[in-house]
């Protein structure tokens, strides 16, 4: 028996369809996150579950009971809602507000019992607001008020807790505090929550439901739902999805790429390493250049970047020097490049060949890019690298400091294919 | 609920009893209480003139204050009062029709019917798809009130010699109140009791309607019942005493400052305070101002006090 099951639900406001053919269920004790772009119907979906909005068709079952057969009070004893921060006009105390959670349990002619008081106190302890009990809700912070609303919802003793972006208006520490409280409830209570922040959703939810244009686009484990492809499809945005280094949960990093076409039909080969090339690989790509890269070690940060960006890269296995085969592959790219960019990378015996090989291309424009950091390359070869570098510069290589200057220089005619 | 709440209610009950006691002994006849009760003539002043008048004033004050409390909670709007959705204009028009067309006969009945009819007209104008959005309700109240006031002005314009009587009635008062009016006013208590049954629902509703639904309140039903009860109570008050302003607006505010917003305490506190307020206002006008309409007194004291409350709240 599922705590809640939604079968083929449509909702519309007037003539406008808001939700279409929504079907899913929640498992007992899980946190199910609802994500999707603005206007995809997330909040409306929650409202349909509490009958605040009417459905056009479809069924909602609470533990196999048809939602429509439940009375108002019965429904409020099964399902509680934590709204987004609400303004409370009158000067109620925290105790008053939490006690309102007992409203569906207390008859019209009855008054609250010792048990009601006990349940409220327990709820306030769980939500960490017990110390505020006699404070006015006007005198507490937004984060505290949100916890009071959680306590109120818990006082309803619901089987299902719905959160409507309950933490969206709070700063990140309060978001985490509140979601940790919610996380601590699961097992007993089934939680369905609308999330705005994909990373919070990925960490706190057992499963995610992704809405797109009124319909369910995907549902499943966070790692299956939060993929680059899904996010590109739904939000129209490039992202990197990596496992969070501490939790292993998927973590969505937006790629803030704004593409131009100044570099279209121009080839640039980048020689970098140790993370010194990531920014310029990204910017060259965004500017439309055809970028190649190498030779890099596969453990290098720059290698990760070039892979995400889909850049053709010559790479060596971990802790390996540059082999002749790799160097030959790199030469192929160097032959075809319109320009070569060398970043201010540290140079040791392992990657010295990357620099030496440039001596074989006296005719190519070579730019030494310092980025925004130190312009000096760390030389771990006992002077050999510095000597090669001096030679390259003597042959006319340019030094460029900023990324913008580099892009501007590379897009000028003399570096283009004549 | 605050711990001091039962004490405050008790104090208000005592204050009301003392007020009624004072009010029946004070009057323009200036007769000491001992002589008042000794001769049959003066006993009649006490029994048939002062007592029904004072108790009726208490009932009307109680009704207006409770209706105001319910409206403010229901609309989550501190400016709401029992007249906000056209009740008083409807009542005024009904009473004026009685004065102009029937020489004052059936005035209370027509006033009550007018008040109820106006309220329900507004209710049905604002209703769409089984819901009554608060903004629409308030706006249709304002619109209908304007229309009714225009009709009222037209009647007054054509009233000729009854104009004075209409003006007097519109300002509200208890000058001709008898035991008969007391019995007409008595159902106000039932209405107030009915409102009190929804005290906890009002608490929840005063947060916001969606929240109230989540907490198990059948919002549209409760709204309908409370509107009906308020219109009933206000309609009776208007029928008995004309439209007396400010009691329904101010009393809930004042009591909310003292007992807090919990309607389980606020409703009885406002009921008692409204009664006290109107008993004293009526006693003042009867004793010192030659029975000037009591609406003038409540507005004269009410409006400055309200401005004071407003200013001090803005500073806080």
Explained architecture:
- The complex is a heterodimer of chains A (418) and B (316).
- With 418 residues, chain A is an alpha/beta fold.
- Chain A contains 15 helices and 18 strands.
- Chain A has helices at residues 42-49, 72-78, 94-99, 114-126, 142-155, 172-185, 198-204, 222-225, 228-235, 278-286, 301-308, 324-336, 352-356, 384-394, 403-410, and strands at 4-13, 16-26, 31-35, 57-62, 65-66, 79-82, 160-164, 190-194, 207-212, 215-220, 239-243, 250-254, 267-271, 290-297, 312-316, 339-343, 366-369, 398-400.
- A 6-stranded mixed sheet of chain A has the order 6-7-8-3-9-10, with helices on both faces. Chain A has a 6-stranded parallel sheet with strand order 15-14-13-16-17-18, with helices on both faces.
- The longest helix of chain A has 14 residues, at 142-155.
- The relative contact order of chain A is 0.09.
- The longest helix of chain B has 36 residues, at 40-75.
- Chain B has helices at residues 5-25, 33-38, 40-75, 87-102, 107-126, 134-159, 163-171, 179-185, 187-197, 199-205, 209-214, 219-241, 247-259, 263-288, 294-315.
- The two termini of chain B are 23 Å apart.
- With 316 residues, chain B is mainly alpha-helical.
- Chain B is 79% helix and 0% strand.
- Chain B has 15 helices and no strands.
- Chain A binds chain B through residues 47, 50-52, 72-77, 79-81, 83, 86, 88-93, 96-97, 100-101, 103-104, 106, 108-109, 156, and chain B through 1, 76, 78, 197-198, 200-201, 203-204, 206-208, 210-211, 213-218, 256, 260-262.
């Amino acid at each position: 028996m599922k705590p809640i099951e939604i079968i083929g639900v449509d909702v519309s406001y007037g003539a406008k369809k808001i939700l279409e053919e929504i079907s899913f269920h929640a498992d007992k004790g899980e946190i199910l996150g609802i994500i999707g772009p603005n206007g995809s119907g997330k909040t409306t979906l929650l409202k349909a579950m509490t009958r605040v909005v009417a459905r056009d068709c479809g069924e909602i079952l609470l533990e196999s009971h048809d939602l429509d057969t439940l009375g108002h009070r019965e429904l409020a004893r099964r399902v509680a809602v934590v709204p987004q921060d609400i303004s409370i006009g009158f000067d109620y105390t925290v105790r008053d507000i939490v006690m309102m959670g007992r409203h569906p349990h207390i008859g019209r002619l009855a008054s609250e019992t010792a048990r009601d008081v006990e349940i409220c106190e327990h709820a306030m302890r769980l939500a960490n607001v017990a110390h505020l009990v006699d404070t006015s809700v006007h005198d507490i912070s937004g984060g505290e008020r949100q916890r009071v609303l959680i306590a109120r919802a818990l006082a309803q003793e619901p089987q299902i807790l719905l959160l409507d972006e309950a933490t969206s208006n709070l700063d990140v520490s309060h978001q985490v505090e509140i979601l940790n409280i919610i996380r601590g409830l699961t097992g007993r209570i089934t939680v369905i929550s609308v999330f705005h922040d994909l990373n919070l959703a990925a960490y706190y939810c057992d499963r995610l439901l992704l809405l797109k244009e009124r319909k369910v686009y995907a549902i499943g484990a966070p790692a299956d739902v939060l993929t680059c492809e899904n996010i590109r499809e739904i939000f129209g945005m490039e992202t990197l999805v990596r496992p969070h280094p501490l939790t292993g949960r998927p973590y969505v990093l937006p790629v803030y790429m704004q593409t131009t076409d100044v570099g279209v039909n121009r080839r640039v080969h980048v020689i970098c390493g140790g993370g010194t090339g990531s920014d310029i690989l990204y910017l060259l790509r965004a500017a439309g250049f055809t970028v190649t890269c190498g030779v890099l070690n596969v453990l290098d940060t720059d290698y990760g970047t070039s892979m995400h960006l889909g850049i053709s890269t010559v790479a060596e296995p971990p802790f390996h020097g540059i082999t002749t085969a790799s160097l030959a592959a790199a030469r192929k790219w160097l032959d075809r490049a319109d320009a070569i960019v060398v970043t201010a990378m540290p140079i040791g015996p392992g990657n010295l060949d990357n620099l030496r090989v440039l001596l074989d291309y006296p005719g190519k424009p070579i730019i030494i890019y310092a980025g925004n950091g130190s312009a000096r390359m760390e030389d771990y070869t006992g002077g050999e690298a510095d000597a090669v570098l001096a030679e390259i510069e003597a042959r006319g290589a340019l030094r460029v400091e900023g990324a913008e200057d580099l892009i501007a220089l590379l897009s000028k005619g003399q570096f283009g294919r004549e | 609920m605050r711990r001091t709440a039962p004490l405050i209610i008790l104090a208000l009950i005592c204050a009301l009893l003392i007020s009624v006691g004072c009010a029946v002994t004070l009057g323009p006849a200036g007769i000491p209480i001992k002589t008042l009760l000794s001769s049959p003539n003066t006993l009649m002043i006490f029994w048939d003139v002062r007592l029904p008048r004072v108790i009726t004033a208490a009932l009307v004050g109680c009704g207006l204050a409770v209706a105001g409390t319910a409206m403010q909670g229901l609309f989550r709007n501190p400016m709401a009062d029992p007249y906000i959705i056209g009740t008083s204009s409807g009542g005024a028009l009904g009473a004026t029709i009685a004065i102009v067309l029937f020489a004052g006969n059936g005035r209370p009945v027509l006033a009550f019917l007018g008040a109820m009819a106006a309220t329900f007209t507004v209710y049905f104008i604002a209703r769409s798809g089984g819901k009554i959005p608060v903004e629409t309700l308030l706006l249709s109240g304002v619109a209908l009130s304007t229309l009714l006031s225009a009709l009222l002005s037209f009647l007054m314009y054509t009233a000729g010699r009854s104009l004075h009587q209409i003006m007097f009635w519109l300002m509200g008062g208890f000058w001709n109140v008898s035991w008969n009016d007391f019995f007409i006013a008595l159902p106000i208590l039932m209405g107030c009791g009915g409102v009190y049954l929804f005290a906890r629902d009002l608490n929840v509703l005063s947060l916001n309607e969606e929240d109230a639904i989540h907490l198990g309140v059948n919002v549209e039903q409760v709204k309908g019942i409370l509107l009906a009860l308020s219109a009933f109570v206000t309609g009776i008050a208007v029928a008995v005493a004309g439209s007396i302003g400010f009691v329904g607006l101010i009393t809930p505010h004042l009591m909310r400052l003292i007992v807090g917003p919990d309607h389980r305490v606020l409703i009885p506190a406002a009921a008692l305070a409204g009664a006290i307020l109107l008993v004293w206002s009526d006693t003042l006008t009867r004793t010192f101002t030659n029975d000037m309409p009591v609406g003038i007194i409540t507005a004269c004291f009410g409006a400055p006090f309200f401005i004071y409350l407003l200013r001090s709240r803005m500073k806080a």
